[in-house]
Amino acid sequence: MGRVRHETYTCAAGCSVEATLKLIGGKWKGVILYRLLTEEVLRFNALRRLLPNITQRMLTNQLRELEADGLLARKIYPEVPPKVEYRLTDYGRTLAPVIQALKQWGDVHIENGVEWAENQAG
Q1: How much helix, strand and coil, in percent to the nearest 5, is found in the chain?
Q2: Residues 62 and 44 sit within 8 Å (Cβ to Cβ)
Q3: Residues 8-46: pLDDT tens digits?
Q4: Cα angle 70, 75, 80; round to 5
Q5: Residue 32 burial (CB < 10 Å; 0-12/13-18/19+)?
Q6: What contacts 109, CB < 8 A, 6 or more positions away?
Q7: Backbone angles phi, psi at 54, to 5 degrees
Q8: Which residues on neighbouring strands pair with residue 84, listed in sequence order?
Q9: Do the beta carbons of residue 33 and residue 92 sit within 8 Å?
Q10: What is the pTM of this model?
Q11: Considering all CA atoms of the chain, what is the largest pairwise distance in Å, rounded to the nearest integer?
């Protein structure tokens, strides 16, 4: 049985966390958003190079979802071969503090996480 997501977010305080994770959750969306925060504008193949473990299909799907949610904008240039650029929208940029906080926590976790977890368990 799949997870039930709320149609509206008018419940307990945790619903706002669920709403945020619905937009940025998953293995790749946060990383894509981080790269677009640091690089400003990226083409599809540049994103593929920055994320070597993502498949082309997954990257395409994640970019489409982020665009549908209004977090990034896609600009297509009428040339052959097609040139497509991705950038964060103003709405997407409002996630900067969230993405930066995730990065900072991740940096500490990578450096000290196992040691910290062992101390908490013991």
Answers
A1: 60, 10, 30
A2: no
A3: 555 665 688 888 888 888 889 999 999 999 999 999 999
A4: 150
A5: buried
A6: 116
A7: -90, 140
A8: 76
A9: yes
A10: 0.79
A11: 61
pLDDT digits (tens, 9 = 90+) for 36-85: 999 999 999 999 999 999 999 999 999 999 999 999 999 999 998 889 99
CA distance 26 to 22: 8
For the chain, how many residues are written?
Answer: 122
CA distance linking residue 103 with residue 96, whole number of Å:
10
CATH topology of domain 27-112: Arc Repressor Mutant, subunit A (1.10.10)
CA distance linking residue 26 with residue 94, whole number of Å: 19
